[in-house]
Amino acid sequence: MQNNRENPSRPIVGVGAVVMKENKVLLIKRGKSPRKGEWSLPGGAIELGETVTAAMSREIREETGLSVTFSEIIDIIDFIEHTPDEKTKFHYVLIDYLAYYKEGTLKAGSDADDARFFNIDDAVEAVSWGETKRIIRKAWDMAQTK
User: Fold this and answer.
1) How many whole angstroms separate alpha carbon 44 and alpha carbon 30?
2) Distance between CA 22 and CA 63 in Å, rounded?
3) Which pLDDT tens digit goes with each residue over 94-146?
4) Considering the domain boundaries, does residue 3 fall inside one?
5) Are 116 and 27 in contact (CB under 8 A)?
6) Is residue 7 part of a domain?
7) 61: domain CATH number?
8) I want to staple 29 with a disulfide (CB 3.0 to 4.6 A). Which of 18, 42, 101, 114 is the partner?
9) Handedness of CA 26, 29, 31, 34 (dihedral sign)
C-alpha cells in the first residue's frame, strides 16, 4: 500500500544524501514532483519496514547507479508546500546524510532525469531551494573537518 504523496493525510518521511567524490557533490535532476526538473540531492521516501540507511542506499542506487558509504546525519528538515487555497499539497520530513562515493558508474535512472557530480560552488548554484543549498554547504564543511 502506497501513501498518497500529493495532498497527504500525514507527513511522509524521506531521506537524502550529499554524496561526495573527490571534492565534488552529486546532484540529480528531479524527474517527478515536487520540484520536477530542478537539481536536488538524491533520495526519496522510506518504504514500510525499511531502515533510513537502507532507503538511502536504495534511492541512490535507483537514481544514480552508485553505491555509497554513510558518514553522519547533516540535518533533519521539513518540506511543506501549500496549494493556493492553503491546503497541504506536499509534506515531507527529510533526513539528510553525508555520504561518500564507494563504487558504480554514474547513470541517471528511476526518478532522475539526469545525474552529475558538481564542484561545490556549481552545486550550490544549480539547486534552487534554499534549504538544499544550506544542506550542501553544511555537508561540505563537515567533510572538510574529516
Assistant:
1) 11
2) 20
3) 999 999 999 999 999 878 899 999 999 999 999 999 999 999 999 999 999 87
4) no
5) yes
6) no
7) 3.90.79.10
8) 114
9) positive
